[in-house]
Design goal:
This protein is mostly helical and 157 residues long. It has one domain. Helices cover 72% and strands 0% of the residues. The protein is globular. The chain starts with 6 loop residues before the first helix and ends with a helix. It binds zinc ion.
């Protein structure tokens, strides 16, 4: 595993994978915007603690509805993942020649900067820190059973 591995470009080369990821995530987000919850995080269901990705769908939908402050409360990385989703959408939908050019440009940026791994590393560090803080909050509040989801408590702080 190389720090300069073009992770995003490698995923983009698999068009079928991109179509599946874009479709599934698009359906989940659209359903959420309509008030239908198609995805419940198994980690949160089992532990009452947020996993690193918890709040991402709500954050992205909030951005699309223009509620930036609310989006930040749900997940600060929502804007980054939305931008990534739009890049995936644009590249996947492009004609083959433009698609290949875009993938090679993205690969070059990734090799030069390692940006994808840097963002994923920060995402995981933020997410795990949030999980640990929620765990301490829960034990201070008298146990995990009393824990509420951090995004639902933030509105009251
Ligand atoms: Zn989760």
């Amino acid at each position: 595993m190389s720090l300069r591995e073009p992770w995003m470009a490698n995923m983009l080369r698999d068009r079928k994978l991109c179509v599946v990821l874009l479709t599934v995530s698009g359906i989940i987000a659209a359903a959420h915007a309509l008030g239908i919850s198609l995805w419940r995080c198994p980690f949160h269901v089992c532990t009452s603690l947020p996993c690193p990705g918890c709040g991402m769908t709500r954050g992205i939908v909030a951005i699309l509805q223009g509620h930036w402050h609310e989006a930040w409360g749900h997940h600060p990385f929502a804007i980054v993942f939305l931008a990534g989703w739009l890049v995936f959408l644009g590249v996947t939908m492009s004609p083959e020649r433009h698609r290949n050019t875009a993938i090679e440009r993205i690969a070059a940026v990734e090799r030069a900067t390692g940006i994808t791994l840097v963002v994923l590393f920060l995402f995981v560090v933020y997410g795990l820190t949030r999980t640990v803080v929620a765990c301490f909050d829960a034990s201070n509040a008298g146990g995990l059973g009393k824990l509420r989801h951090p995004t639902s408590t933030q509105h009251h702080l």
